Amino acid sequence: INFVWKFLGTVRFGNDHVAGILGFGDLQWGNILITMVYFVEGLGHNLFSVGQFYDSDLEVAFRRNACFIRNLEGVDLLKGDRSTNLYTINLHEMASASPIFEI
C-alpha cells in the first residue's frame, strides 16, 4: 500500500461531528485494488466512496440491508451490511469466508 500524508479537507458525520481527512492511499485486498482510500483522523476505519469503486472498474448495488461490490462481469467481490444509515464492509470476514481472495 502506498500512502500520502496530505490534508484534503473534512468529512461530516450524521451526528454533526467533523473530522479531518489527513491523507490517502491505495488499498490492496487479495486481488481487489481500491484507489484513493481516505484516512480520516480518529475514525479507525477506511472510507470509500461509490466513485472510488467505479474508478476501479467495479459496480456498486445497494439493497435495503446490504450492498454489493461487483466486477464488470457481475461477479460479487465484496458484500457490505447496513447498520442504521451506514453500509460497512468487513474485509477480514470476507477474506475468511470467500474464495475470491488470494492472500
TrEMBL record:
It comes from the Eukaryota. This is Integrase, catalytic region, zinc finger, CCHC-type, peptidase aspartic, catalytic. It comes from Tanacetum cinerariifolium (Dalmatian daisy).
